[in-house]
Design goal:
Layout lengths: L1 H15 L10 H14 L2 E6 H9 L11 H21 L15 H13 L5 E4 L16 E5 L5 E10 L26 E13 L2 E11 L4 E5 L6 H4 L13
Parallel strand pairs: 4-5
Antiparallel strand pairs: 1-7, 2-3, 3-4, 5-6
Helix pairs in contact: 1-2, 4-5
Amino acid sequence: MKALFNLFFAALLSTLGCTAEEPQPQSADIEPFVHWLLDDGGRLEDVRFAAVAEAVSACQVLPVDASDPVDAAMLAHVQTTLDAMLLELAQSDNSIHTVGRVNEISRHVEDFLLAHLNEADGYECSIPPNASGKEQRSGYPDLRLEHSASGRVFYIDPKVYKQGSETSRFRTFYFEPKRETNKILDDASHLIVGIAHGGKVDGRWQLNAWKVVDLINFRVRLKAEFQSSNRELYQADAVLSESGTE
């Protein structure tokens, strides 16, 4: 499995990560990868997310150690901020209640955590820059929390989910590995902050509970596919004929 995993990521990074200046992979380089797709259905099942993140970023994924004073302090800071968030966003005049769709709630949650995790002395919370040095809100992870004195980093990705759906098999976590837009630039712990909602009642969103999840042993699966766009598909030099021409 390890050899297959390494083969897959070598091919994946060489194809998805190429820039215009980099040499394109040759057919011989891609052939083993294509055979894997054909022979094994193009899937990787039950893979540790930590292994994926480390393969893409070359940064270590660290477990949260609640017995370590720094980790314990950082975790307590996150938990206290989440408690404050539930109270604040429950206020009737909060702007979160003006949004109509549940997927719009996440930005309010993210903005609150960004601001309030950054307020406490000794911490810095920011939008992680990508490998090109640009601040990037899209893509995993959403937030970077640093303990200033030690340099310890937590990556935090807030997710809003319907309360009671914890056992649902619907896909809610996505991670797309790319070199230039990779946002994992530190040895760090990776946390999902799950916010359970109970829908909109009397014009107010009900955010009822939170969970902090350590991704150190989180398992993911991948289904590979080749894709393109109309821009690549309908290139002028590849069109053999079209309507209205002889």
